[in-house]
Queue: 2 jobs
Job 1
Amino acid sequence: MTSNQIPDIVIGRLPIYLRALTYMAEEGKEITSSQELGERLGISSAQIRKDLSHFGEFGKQGTGYEVAYLRDQLKRILKVERTWPVALVGYGDLGHALAHYGGFAAKGFEIVVLFDNDPNKIGQKVAGKEVVDIAKLPQVVREKNIKVAIIAVPSSAAQRVADALVEAGIKAILNYAPIHIAVPPDVRVQYIDPAAHLQRMTYYLE
């Protein structure tokens, strides 16, 4: 089965499995089972086995999965056994928080450049990285061979930023702007909208 034939919902669960396995490895656990993983994650053991079966055989009947091996295989499948350089566009309150967040590196990502259009921010050093004029985005993205970007700009600017990123060769965008952006079919977009997630939960409240 090719990568395009595997349901995106399955791909979406792999990072959750990887996170759990990483914690297990840090705890010194060497062997686990789909049952144990399922109990940790609130996912059925049958679903976990079905998801993993898309990519091969990773466990042994009766003995389960070797934690470190399965963790490393999921890293390979998700292509995070390497570190991806990331461009962050927008250095407002959210951009500031993302630039200083220390959790990306361990997951396979490093913010290598920040872009903004505010003259008062351009040239600032942030966590060892310089805030660059957004007008230089195409040149810098190509020079650094960046394929992943984070959009943390107001909704009104998000589509323009997305267009510039795609034109520069970006293939994966994490969009924090609370608006849908149009991109070509070969560019992947993930949306993070905290307000929408809150609204989804309040539906269930009394």
Job 2
Amino acid sequence: MVQVLEGGQYQFELQRVGETTLTLYSRVEKCAYQIKQSNGIYLAKNGQGYQPLYQVTHGVVYFRRENAQTITAYVKRGKRVTHVTKIHFLPTTRSTAINERVDHDRRDG
């Protein structure tokens, strides 16, 4: 999962962080992607299918924004956190006004 999100194939910028979802912008394809969950984590692009990224059995992945380019992902099974990782995205190239609005829409933490 981390290799796909941090790698050069999509060159993702972090747009929005929800408790269990992410919205990313691909510099390569110049469009938005969503990270969603249903028996695992998958990468979705505007209803054009999905790419599985991480299989979670009986658990949920939660996201927390650390700063403009970094999130922490927590895998929880019941009340127990089983995995924690930081994911780093590219610096945003979009205007500051857009990012400020997105940052204030919903903040976790």
